[in-house]
Amino acid sequence: MDCVKIPRVSKPTGGLIAVVLACLFLPLVAYAQTPIRATLSPPVVESFPRMSAYLDVRDEQGNFLSGLTAADVTVIENNSPFPASELNEIRPGAQIVVAFNLDDTFAIRDGEGNTRYDYLVSNLSEWATSKANAGDQNDDLSIVVPSGNLVQHTTNSIEWLNALQVFEADLQSTSPGLDVLSRAVELAADPVPKGGMGRVVLFMTPALDASLADALQNQADRANDAGVRILVWLVDSQSVFESPGVNAMRAMAEQTGGSLEGYSGSEVLPDLENLIEPYRRVYQLGYQSQVDNSGSHQVVALIRQGDAELTTAPQNFEMQIAPPAATFVSLPAEVVRSNPPGDAEALEQLLPTVTTIDILIEFPDDIPRQIVRSTLYANGEAVAENGTAPFEQFNWDLTEYEGNQVVVLSAEIEDEIGLASRSVDTPIQISIQRAPVGLSSLLARYGAWLAGGIALLAGAVLLLVLVLSGRLSPQPMGARRKVKTSPLDPVTQPVAEVTPPDTQPGRFAQIASRISAPRLRWPQRRSGQQQPYAYLAPITEQGEPRPGEIEPVVQPEIIFGSDVSRTSIPLDDDSLEAVHSRLWRDDEGVVHLADLETVAGTWINYAPVTTDGGRVQHGDLIHIGKVGFRFTESNPTRTTRPRAILQERES
Asked: What is the spatial distance between Cα 407 and Cα 550, in angstroms, rounded to a whole number?
């Protein structure tokens, strides 16, 4: 940036006199004599629970107290103390408003013919030129005069300087007052362009009347509320430097952490850069918030330096916090487990043994936080848990499921501040399908047993054929065993008897002929059981899961009520009528729920339905009187997204 040269106003030539007068003046310059003070800004909550705030600490003279560390600061949030995680000294700049409260005292000239106002403008011009030459644009600059604002909220010191130089001050007809100071404080209290910037009003004014003491106190209170420091440059004769009105002005400045400087025209004006510099610096405080509920909260900072302790004024802040929400993503309606065909070693193994379940994690309060745990529940029991990332995916072990069944899944997540929530219960069908076993596999595993069984079966069939054909006659039961005789003993030899040929079948054959062959019937396929198209999971009146049996919805029309003989699903509750509500599925697959002119009514998502009925979708909450269910489709086409509505707690 090009250097800007400002014509200097010639200074008084009486050097020795000026030095003597300056020495006389110095004891009159008063600095704030209040004890060490500290100011804490409202915390920045955008990165919750990692919070940050600006901490301004000043000594007895109003100078910035440098050198503090995080070990010197304790954060007290909602009366619970814990150490600060970081404390860094930064220099964000200051929001500076120069206010001219003009009257004819500014027009008094010295021996060189220069007015007091000329020397003030010369001092400000040198300061602005130095900033421009250094390329310093950290400060926010404004000028206020009795007629209005010459320039406001600019970081360009050249623009600010040009506005000052072109201003034609009316020093004769202007009367001093507090309007200029009031507007300057209001301008300095505007939102700063950068966090942590100081707020300073340089108030150039003649001595004010002591009757304005109450009004000055009001300005001090306004400035303190906004964190504005008031620096007073008293432009008047030395005879009024200790007047009651000036003392009231000094008290106002000191209450805000500022000071009062006197200038009669013969003194050396303060170095404005050194005067402003302490207000450009501040500490950035960081800490981990312990807040875990919505509402109003309070934080203070405790500063220790040596044996001294200082506590800042409390800062209140509001937090609206809700637990994170989990939603299943692309959850299948059915998981099929089957054995791999043709594998002799895996005939008893069902695959898959593990399936992946994905969830979507969202923050209804729009404050993202770290997740520390996610748990998958099946029928209310934890079946998978993540203690480290990724938290959005579970590996579900399926080895314990060996039969057809419906399993209700839910996911629970917990964030770093301990807030947890569980997703909507969602049923999933586990189906078991055993694939046909190949001949080679059977022979490989049961070959010996099969060969023996086939041999026995073939022998039995052959024996049966021989018997039935008469080629083999079994010995009649009860026949006597013949006595063996010696062929040489004629006494014991049998006498031959002639009989006609035996044309009758044997006794075993006669019995077998009476037995008719049984009719062989091939196994018939059983008609398949109709699958439910939805389920009704019991819930409380507030929509929370409650113990109870999950009702499968199979029939196209269901009647709810207390009369067991007239309803499809009888319910035992005093709020129900004999025939209370009707749920049906139309030809297009849309499910409806209608009230049957009852007193307690029928509700969908807490909205009453008429006798014409209302549409029921996947995930909806329905209430039959006071009996509640969550309606869950077996094959959902869309999911009704739950909404968390935070209600303020009544005091």
From this structure: 10
pTM: predicted TM-score of the whole model, two decimal places: 0.57
CATH superfamily of 15-27+97-193+202-275: von Willebrand factor, type A domain (3.40.50.410)
Nearest Cα neighbor of 241 from 260, 216, 219 is: 260
Cα 120 to Cα 114, 138, 201, 488, 604, distances in angstroms: 11, 23, 15, 169, 76
What is the CATH class of 31-91+281-320?
mainly beta
- The dihedral of CA 104, 107, 110, 111: what is its sign? negative
Residues 6+ apart with CB under 8 A from 428: 331, 332, 333, 334, 335, 406, 407, 408, 409
- Residue 541 has a pLDDT of 75
Minimal CA–CA distance to 590: which of 567, 565, 617? 617
Residue 624's pLDDT is what?
94
Q: Which two tokens stand for residue 449?
A: 């047993």
Strands 94-100 and 140-145: parallel
DSSP 279: G
The two three-digit tokens of residue 41, written as one number: 């800004």
Tokens of 538: 């019991």
Q: Are strands 334-339 and 426-434 parallel, antiparallel or unpaired?
A: parallel
Model pLDDT for residues 3-15, shown as the tens digit of each residue: 333 333 344 434 3
Cα 203 to Cα 209: distance, rounded to the nearest angstrom: 16
Show the low-confidence residues of the chain (pLDDT under 50): 1-34, 344, 477-504, 508-509, 511-528, 641-651
CB 411 within 8 A of CB 315: no
Domain boundaries, the chain: 15-27+97-193+202-275, 31-91+281-320, 325-434, 534-633
DSSP per residue, 294-316: SEEEEEEEEEEETTEEEEPPPEE
> Crossing angle for the helix pair 116-134 and 157-166, nearest 10 degrees?
160
* Six token digits for residue 443: 């022979």
Task: For residue 538, list its beta bridge partners.
Answer: 629
The listed CATH number (3.50.50.60, 3.30.450.20, 1.10.10.410, 2.60.200.20) that belongs to domain 534-633: 2.60.200.20
Kindly provide the b/e burial profile for residues 115-127, where b requires at least 16 CB atoms within 10 angstroms of the residue's own CB.
bbbbbbbbbbbbb
Which residues share a beta bridge with 285?
A: 53, 87
The Cα 257–Cα 230 span in angstroms is 7
pLDDT, tens only, 348-383: 689 999 999 999 999 999 999 999 999 999 999 999
- Overall fold of domain 325-434: Immunoglobulin-like (2.60.40)
> In angstroms, how far is the first alpha carbon of the chain from the final one?
59
Write down the pLDDT at residue 483.
Answer: 43
